[in-house]
Hints:
The protein has helices spanning 3-19, 65-83, 99-114, 119-131, 139-147, 154-162, 167-179, 201-211; strands at residues 46-47, 54-60, 87-93, 187-190, 193-194.
Amino acid sequence: MTKKLTVLTILVVLVASIIGGVFYVNAQTVTGTTYDERPVGINNPMRGSPSAPITVTEFGDYMCPACYTFQSDIMPALEPYIESGQVQFQWVNLMLFGQESLLAGYASRSVYDQSPEKYWDMHEALFQTIHHSQEPLTEERLIVLIESMETIDTEAFEDDLSNQRLFGDLEQDALLAEAFAIDRTPTVFVNNRKVDDPFDINQLNKAIEHEL
């Protein structure tokens, strides 16, 4: 087994143990819960003004069909809040679907580390690439995708897959999910409140308006 695959295997086991081995991921509702604080990741990708009064956090997985639905159907409803400076959006990657999830997670982290301004283009491209194709996600397909994005160094991405440089970032996402009892994707927070049904646009809007 190569070092690259060994690192990915370790991450699969790590995420499964932290999240509790819950791999049944769908769009069912979860019990609404208010926490003492909102989820705050360490160096997580953020969109919108840092001074926004509201942070919407999505715990998601690029391989998750329901997360793709959230990205395509629900995110457009959040755009006006983000563009107006009222909402900052945070993505936390859970990687519950095994090696393909981990490859996508590594790819997104590598792009974020190299060129943060390109991250959200990569975020959208990953969802489109994964969910508009029947082919499995492989390192080769990711390299082709990254090569299509200007200023991204494919050799640096391959190096990231071959070593443990990003291991800590991915581990922190899993630990954050454990702290907030996340067991499925997508799970969405508006500040410190877990949204019962992230696919109910009216409920999501009400949660945001309540915080303004």
